[in-house]
Specification:
2% strand, His-Me finger endonuclease fold, 247 residues
Length: 247
């Protein structure tokens, strides 16, 4: 019966905290219990990287949160290098955000607007007004008034008689000035769209990496739980057999 009690209490397999009088991280030696986690919970991909780097790994040991986060980031970096080759600035920023647990979501348009100069802001306002119905109405009224004044109100001495040469000069000058201003605004809009696309790429890449890590973690946890259930079932079968033999 002593053996039954021992097995029922889980005496056949002692946990890491029971094996060591002073639990420590097997990598750096950290002994703060609040920072220690069981090494068996580390995903195989990360534990394989640790074993490859330090030369040893014990699933029954412990690992601190700092080393766990460090090797998780190394694993993600190696994953990106394998898939993409050399990492660029965008990938590095994503890795830093994963390392520091920062949020990448922000409004790129707001950041872009804060860097505009006064001339760029004026160009954007001119382009916005030039492509609106308000500009068409105002400019149409101006043309009608100009022709009415020079055709009917000033019949004797019009300052710009028909065919309105001065008006044609004003329109040509306006088109010559307005075209490059609108092109400058369009170039900034293209830069704004490119910044937004880069930001979307970073968010998508970070989400993909985190989802992949989450899938691996869940698969590892399910595998560990399945092994534990099989072990418990074996212990139960042994207990049943011992009870039968005792009768």
């Amino acid at each position: 019966m002593a053996s039954l009690t021992k097995r029922a209490a889980g005496g056949d397999k002692m946990g890491p905290l029971q094996k060591h009088s002073l639990p420590r991280c097997q990598i750096c030696g950290e002994n703060n219990r609040d920072l220690l986690r069981q090494a068996a919970l580390v995903r195989p991909a990360v534990s394989g990287l640790i074993q490859k780097e330090i030369g040893s790994w014990d699933d029954d040991g412990l690992i601190c949160l700092n080393d766990l986060e460090k090797y998780r980031n190394k694993y993600v970096q190696s994953l990106l290098v394998t898939e993409k080759g050399e990492l660029g600035t965008l990938e590095q920023e994503v890795l830093e955000s994963l390392k520091d647990h920062e949020v990448l979501s922000r409004d790129p348009a707001a950041d872009f607007e804060t860097e505009l100069t006064f001339g760029q802001r004026v160009a954007d306002r001119v382009a916005d007004f030039g492509g609106s119905w308000s500009f068409l109405f105002v400019f149409g009224f101006f043309l009608a008034a100009w022709m009415a004044v020079n055709s009917y109100l000033l019949i004797t001495r019009p300052f710009d008689p028909y065919p309105y040469i001065l008006l044609n000069l004003i329109l040509s000058s306006l088109a010559a000035i307005q075209a490059p201003v609108i092109m400058m605004s369009q170039n900034r809009q293209e830069a704004r769209d490119q910044l937004r696309a880069q930001h979307d790429f970073q968010i998508n890449l970070k989400a993909e990496l985190e989802i992949r890590q989450l899938h691996q973690k869940i698969d590892h946890m399910l595998s560990a739980q399945w092994e534990r259930l099989v072990e418990i079932q074996q212990i139960q079968m042994e207990l049943i057999n011992e009870l039968r033999s005792a009768k």
